[in-house]
């Protein structure tokens, strides 16, 4: 038997054995569960247990994830929020954040991540600090609108995460932004 045929035969045997283990891991041929004790209340796992072979209702069986989890990402251009090279919010930026704060009251908030970004003008250290100040100003404003500050995380990407070329004034303007990511579930 040549080497290729032996490898193919070994692969088929391995896959067949794995399929046989997975297919009868939780049910006997009569459809009853293998891994419940005599009282029918305790489930057991063997070394072949996987989430895919978990029996419904048994310890370790997975429940379906909540389907109403919502995640959205909002990008706010820095020209709307801040003056050039500043982190103080402009009135237009505050108005935008007011709308976001109102929308947040409609959900059960999990987390908000604000990420400050800058263009390439300036040093890495300066832009990291400016991006952090911008992200922090968004957090501070949202907290002033009764958003739970313990759920808001800030970070800066400085000039390391451009969305446009920094070779033009238009591109640099697009890179001066704050990204806001909101994760929550529908309020009940």
Topology:
Elements: H1 3-23, E1 69-77, H2 78-81, H3 91-104, E2 107-117, H4 124-144, E3 152-158, H5 169-175, E4 177-186
Structural summary, described in words:
Residues 1-22 form the signal peptide. Keywords: Cell outer membrane, Membrane, Signal. Residues 69-186 form the OmpA-like domain. The protein has 188 residues and is an alpha+beta fold. The chain folds into 2 domains: 3-53; 69-186, 60s Ribosomal Protein L30, Chain: A (2-Layer Sandwich). It starts with a helix and ends with a strand. The protein has helices at residues 3-23, 78-81, 91-104, 124-144, 169-175; strands at residues 69-77, 107-117, 152-158, 177-186. Strand 2 (107-117), helix 4 and strand 3 form a beta-alpha-beta unit. Strands 1-4-2-3 form a 4-stranded mixed sheet.
Identify the notable features of this structure and list them briefly.
60s Ribosomal Protein L30, Chain: A, alpha+beta, flat
Could you provide a short overview of the structure?
This protein has helices at 3-23, 78-81, 91-104, 124-144, 169-175; strands at residues 69-77, 107-117, 152-158, 177-186.
* Architecture (CATH level 2) name of the largest domain: 2-Layer Sandwich
Question: Which fold does the CATH topology of the largest domain refer to?
Answer: 60s Ribosomal Protein L30, Chain: A
Can you tell me the overall shape?
Answer: flat
Number of helices: 5
Derived from helix and strand composition plus strand pairing, the structural class reads alpha+beta
Query: What is the end-to-end distance?
Result: 66 Å
Give the spatial strand order of the biggest sheet: 1-4-2-3
What's the Cα radius of gyration? 27 Å
Mean pLDDT: 75
Q: Can you say what the CATH homologous superfamily of the largest domain is?
A: OmpA-like domain
Number of domains: 2
Main pleated sheet: 4 strands, mixed
Q: Tell me the series of helices and strands, N- to C-terminal.
A: HEHHEHEHE
Proportion of residues in helical segments = 25-40%
Strand residue content: 15-25%
Q: Work out the number of β strands.
A: 4
CATH class call of the largest domain: Alpha Beta
């Amino acid at each position: 038997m040549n080497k290729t045929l032996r490898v193919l035969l070994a692969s088929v045997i391995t896959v067949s054995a794995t399929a046989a283990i997975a297919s009868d891991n939780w049910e006997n041929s009569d459809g009853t569960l293998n891994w419940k004790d005599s009282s029918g209340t305790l489930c057991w796992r063997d070394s072949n247990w996987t989430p895919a072979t978990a029996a419904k209702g048994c310890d370790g069986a997975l429940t379906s994830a909540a389907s109403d989890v919502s995640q959205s990402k909002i990008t706010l251009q820095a020209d709307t929020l801040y003056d050039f090279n500043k982190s103080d919010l402009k009135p237009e930026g505050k108005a935008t954040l007011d709308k976001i704060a109102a929308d947040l009251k409609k959900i059960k908030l999990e987390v908000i991540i604000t990420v400050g970004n800058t263009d390439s003008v300036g040093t890495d250290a300066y832009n990291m600090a400016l991006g952090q100040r911008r992200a922090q100003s968004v957090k501070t404003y949202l907290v002033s609108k009764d958003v739970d500050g313990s759920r808001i995380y800030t970070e800066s990407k400085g000039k390391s995460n451009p969305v446009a070329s920094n070779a033009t004034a238009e591109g640099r303007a697009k890179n001066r932004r704050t990204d806001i990511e909101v994760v929550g579930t529908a309020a009940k």
